[in-house]
Design a protein that fits this description.
This protein has 510 residues and is mainly α. It is 65% helix and 5% strand. It is built from 24 helices and five strands. Strand 4 and strand 5 form a beta hairpin. It starts with a helix and ends in a 7-residue tail after the last strand.
């Protein structure tokens, strides 16, 4: 009996000691779950969950649901949608749980690679805290986005290239799988994986560096994904689908806007900072160089995508934070920050970290602000539709009112992109007929949704009035849409740039 009590006390003491040792890591994970449970349901995530739910219900891509992004964009959220349909756990919280677990696994994999933080237990713990903060806290409003998942897949790959110690074949294969997954999600993130490989090849030219196992595995994953698209999703390879994707890709911000938004403030500053902190002549530069190249690849990816959205900065800012804090100089017990210039560099790292955080914390729409309006004037579980180029008007609002989305598409994205291209005189004469066909098809789909699905609420965007585009006028160009809006709906009012129409009750006067 006494032995059992002593064993229990010893076990309790070990648990308490473990909690004391890992208290900061536990706090980071706990804070992430608490905060993100209120933030994770963003517009993009909500819509991609909707796409997955439609597919799970037997819908066909291109008919029952319209999504221009490659299929992996919604496939990664299928498990969350499936859990949300079959368990009491909401789909967004299921995605939160899976993302946290994926981040923990990737951090563990990154730390298992023989890197510059293997000097001692204290520096290893600091590296673990930095990686947890970079993968769980830094994403802020963009937690669970595709870029977040992609950078999680890429971190072990970059750490492997930076490692001075040979790794096992299993670790190399796992790193290659993660990098291949990231490039399938976002093809332009190939720069994040490719530049560190070129760095390693330039430092040590050899066939072994050309045909690295992790690089071959990543390439195999990409080729397998392309083959899957050809076999199982041929509809996205049609002429109209390719043209719609082309319209979306070309609808981008100018270079000046992209540079002003975050490129110079994050990537260049962080890379130069690491050069100052470590110094290219230092032996540590061998491990820091691949991280710098990966951050530069993230900057290139940001410019190539050209959207200027905050989440497209995530790979760049995450890797910038890693190279600033994971450099061997920062992790050593005897960090040489005794001189004034060294202290100034350390302060610069702190400022950069705060700057990266601010870059990711964007002002976001309060999606719940229209919930009282809709619940007061629409029936329970209403059907919603929006006439807008932005999915942010309908998603995740439709989930917050426990309604249904009365359209195969999340928005009139293609028509909005075409309108912008025409406004900027970027439509060539040979492309004009194809663009007109896409706009006609999108308006026809809107007409069919209004007539057959009979949504309870119609929301019309007026935000683009500042860009001299009238979305209500665009819709009413179709005589049947104009007739339905006049006869079946009552205009309630305009709130924060959105015009609300509610379906008339039977017998109500026009």
């Amino acid at each position: 009996m006494l032995d059992n009590q002593q064993a229990s006390r010893a076990l309790a003491g070990n648990r308490l000691q473990m909690l004391r040792h890992y208290w900061l890591e536990i706090a980071i994970v706990t804070a992430t779950i608490v905060v993100q449970s209120h933030l994770i349901l963003t517009s993009d995530l909500s819509w991609l969950l909707t796409v997955g739910e439609r597919i799970l219900a037997g819908g066909k891509l291109g008919i029952d649901v319209i999504e221009l992004n490659p299929p992996l964009s919604w496939i990664v959220y299928l498990p969350g949608a499936w859990i949300g349909q079959r368990t009491p756990l909401p789909a967004d919280l299921a995605v939160l749980t899976m993302t946290v677990l994926f981040a923990l696994l990737q951090v563990k994999l990154t730390l298992s690679l023989a890197g510059p933080w293997h000097h001692d237990g204290a520096s290893r713990r600091r590296a673990r805290i930095v990686l947890l903060a970079a993968t769980l806290l830094l994403p802020a409003m963009h937690f669970g986005q595709r870029e977040h998942l992609a950078v999680l897949g890429l971190l072990p790959f970059v750490a492997l290239v930076a490692s001075p110690v040979p790794s096992t074949r299993t670790l190399r294969v796992l790193c290659g799988l993660g990098a291949g997954f990231a490039m399938c999600l976002k093809p332009h993130l190939a720069a994040v994986a490719g530049l560190p490989l070129l760095w390693a090849l330039a430092r040590r030219p050899s066939w072994r560096n050309v045909f690295r196992i992790e690089a071959l595995v990543a390439a195999a994953v990409v080729f397998a994904y392309v083959g899957m698209i050809v076999l199982f999703f041929p509809q996205i390879l049609t002429a109209d689908a390719r043209l719609a994707s082309q319209v979306y890709v070309t609808n981008r911000e100018d270079l000046r806007t992209l540079l002003a938004y975050g490129f110079g403030a994050t990537s260049i500053a962080s890379i130069l900072l690491v050069v100052l902190v470590i110094g290219p002549k230092s032996p540590d530069w061998r491990q820091a160089g691949p991280w710098c190249m990966a951050a530069l690849g993230g900057a290139i990816s940001y410019l190539v995508q050209g959207k200027g959205f905050g989440y497209t900065l995530l790979p760049m800012v995450t890797l910038s934070l890693c190279i600033a804090w994971l450099s061997p100089t920062m992790l050593r017990e005897t960090t040489p920050f005794s001189g004034r210039f060294a202290k100034a560099r350390f302060a610069a790292v702190i400022v950069l970290t705060l700057e990266l955080w601010v870059a990711m914390v964007e002002f976001r729409q309060d999606h719940g602000r229209f919930v009282p309006l809709i619940t007061a004037h629409a029936p329970p579980h209403p059907a919603l539709i929006a006439i807008t180029p932005h999915i942010s008007i309908g998603e995740p609002l439709v989930r917050l009112v426990h309604g249904t989305w009365a359209s195969a598409a999340g928005s009139q994205l293609t028509s909005g992109a075409v309108a912008r291209l025409e406004r900027e005189s970027k439509v060539s004469p040979e492309d004009r007929p194809g663009y007109a066909r896409l706009v006609f098809a999108e308006r026809a789909r809107l007409r069919s949704d209004l007539v057959t699905r009979r949504p309870d609420v119609v929301m019309i965007d007026t935000y683009n009035f500042r860009q001299k585009f009238d979305w209500e006028g665009w819709a009413r160009t179709d005589g049947e849409i104009d007739r339905v809006l006049r006869s079946d709906y009552a205009f309630f009012g305009e709130h924060e740039g959105i015009r609300f129409y509610f379906r008339r009750k039977p017998g109500a006067a026009e």
